[in-house]
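retry 2 of 3: previous attempt timed out while embedding adenosine-5'-triphosphate. Reduced batch size to 1 and resubmitted. Inputs unchanged:
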Amino acid sequence: MKLSQTFIPTLREVPGDALIASHRLMFRSGMLRKLSNGLFAYLPLGLRSFRKVERIIREEMDAIGSLEIKPTVVVPGDLWKESGRWETMGEALLRVKNRLGTDFVVSPTAEEAFTALVRDELSSYRQLPLSLYQINTKYRDEIRPRYGVMRGREFVMKDAYSFHTDEDSLDETYQAMGRAYRRIFKRCGLTVIPVRADSGAMGGSGSEEFMVESEIGDNTLLLCRACDYAANVEKAACKPDWAGGEGISPEAARTAAASTAAIEKIDTPEVKTIEELCGFLKTDAKRFIKTLIYRAVNVELDLSSAPGNHRGEKRPSGELSYGETFFAVLIRGDLEVNEIKLAAVLKASEVTLAADTDVVRLTGAPVGFAGPVGLEGIPIIADLSVTAMNDAVTGALARDLHYTHVAYGRDFVPWLVTDIRTVKAGDRCSLCGGELYEKKGNELGHIFKLGYKYTRSMQVSYLDEAGKTRIPTMGCYGIGLDRTLASVIEEHHDEAGIIWPMTVAPYQAIIIPIKYDGAVKTAADGLAAALENHGIEVLLDDRNERPGVKFNDADLMGIPFRVVLGDKNLNLSPPMVEVKHRAQKENRLIELGRATEELTGLVYGELAELNR
Ligand code: ATP
Ligand code: MG
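retry 2 succeeded.
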C-alpha cells in the first residue's frame, strides 16, 4: 500500500485532552479521531490493528469450541425488564423508544439477549453445554469517558456466554476461557495479571479479571511477594493479624474476656471521631470498634433469623429479596469496611452508608455514638477482626458517651461474623502468609461464573436424562477490544511513538525511498511487490517529503521493520538497503537481492514467537 493512497493523517501536536500515551499516540499516528465525547472513529491505520486483535480473539474462541453468532446491538427492553436490570443498571444503560413507543436497550453487555436466544431453543440436556460468543458494539453511557478508547461510551467487546447442566461442566468451560484469555493477551504482546475478582451476589470463587498494570488503572490489586496470590481489592482476603487464626466464637471469646474489667460507661464530651477518641483516651485505633450503619438494597441473604422486621418479597426468580434494609457493621478501628465484600455477603445490589437521619433513627443517638452494646432492632454484622477484641471502646448509643472494656461475646453477640475488611499493602497473604503489596491495574477482560442468576430470572429450562425439568447454570466472559489495543500501545511505545508487536502491527514493514524517483523508485516498488508476494504487509512511503519527516512518521506509526532505500547504498556492489527494527537502535545494511527473503524470515519469526 502506498502511503499517498491511504488516509493516515499524522499529527505533530498532541490533543489537549490526551493524558496517556496510547490516547496521544493513537491520535498522532492517525489511527483514531474523535466524533464526540467517548465516541471514536478508527481510521484505516487504526482499523488494521483493531482487526488483528479481533482476529486473534476469534481464533482463540473458535479453538476452544465457542460458537460465534451475531445478535443485534439494539435489543428489546422487555428482556431487561425480565432480568431486573432495566431497574438496577442505572444511568449507564442507554434506553430508547421506537416510533410505537416500545422500549429498547442499546446493549452495554448481552446476558439478556443470549439467555433469551438459548431459552427459545433449549429443550434437552443433550444440547448442553453450549458456548456462544459475539464480537460486537456495546454502548455504556459512562459518566466520565476518559483516556481515549480505554473508557469510551461506544466500544467493541467480545462477549461469550455458556450454558451447562452442572457445575463441573461450567468449570471446564470457565477454565478453557481462562486459558484462551491468557493466549489472547500473550499473542497481543501484553503482560497481564490475572486476579481473583468479586463474583458479586452469586458467591463462589468463579471470577477472574485480566489486568494490565497501569498508573491510571481504576483497580487496586493486591499481590503476594512470596506466592502467586493476586486479587482485586474488591475481593482480596488476608490472614487474620491476631493470635488464634480465624474468627473466634462468642463462647471462646467470653472465656477469653474473663480477665477483662466489667464494661463501663465514660463521658466523652464532644468526642466523636476515632482520632479524637484516640487523643482523648490516649490509646490507639486498634482498641476501638467502629460501628457503621449501612443501607442495603435488594438483599437476597436470608434475614428470617435477623433482628428487626424484615419482610422479603418473592422475586419471579424464586429468591426472597428485601428492598431497603439497614445493618450495623462493626470493624476494628484501624481497618476499613470493604463495601463490595459487604454487598457480596448480603447478596445486595447496592450498599451505601446510611443517611444521618437513618443513623439517628436506628441508634437513638447522634451520629458518632453508635455501638453494638444494647443495639436492638437491626442486624449486627461484625468483621472477623472484632472477634479478637475483648477490651474495646465503642459508642454507647447516647450523646457524649462511650463504653470501655467492651468484650465481644460477653457484651454483645453479632448476628453475623464474616470477612469484610479492606486488605491493604503490608497485610499477610491468606494463602502463604507472605507480605502483600499493591499495584494499580486496568481491566482488559473478565471471566465469571454467573450461576443461575439469568437462567432463573428469565426462566430457562431443559429436560434432564430422567425427563425432569432443570435450570441450566451459566458463565459469561468478556474482553474489550479497544482497551486491549490501547493497552498494547501503553506497554509498547517510546518517546518517538508506538512499537507494535508483530501480531498487531498495522503493517509489518515500511519502505522509505529517500527520494521516490528513478532507480530508487524502481527498487522500492520491486521490493514492496516482492514482500507482498510473500504475504508481508507493506507500507510504501511514496510521499515527496524530507527523509526526516518520513522517519518520524514511521517511528510514530510503530511499524516493526523500516527499510530505507537511497542512491548511495543502491549504487554499492552489490546494491544494499538499510534495515532497522523499530525496537532497536541500530540499523544495518543488507543486500537488496536478499532483502525479501531475510525480512520475510524475520517477520514470520516474530509472528511465530508471539503466537507460540
Ligand atoms: P470497568 O470496571 O473498567 O468499567 P467493567 O467491569 O464494567 O469495566 P465488564 O462489564 O466486565 O467491564 O466488561 C468487559 C470488558 O469490556 C472490560 O474488561 C473492558 O475491557 C471492556 N470495557 C468495559 N467498559 C468499557 C468502556 N467504557 N470502554 C472501553 N472498554 C470497556
Ligand atoms: Mg468487570
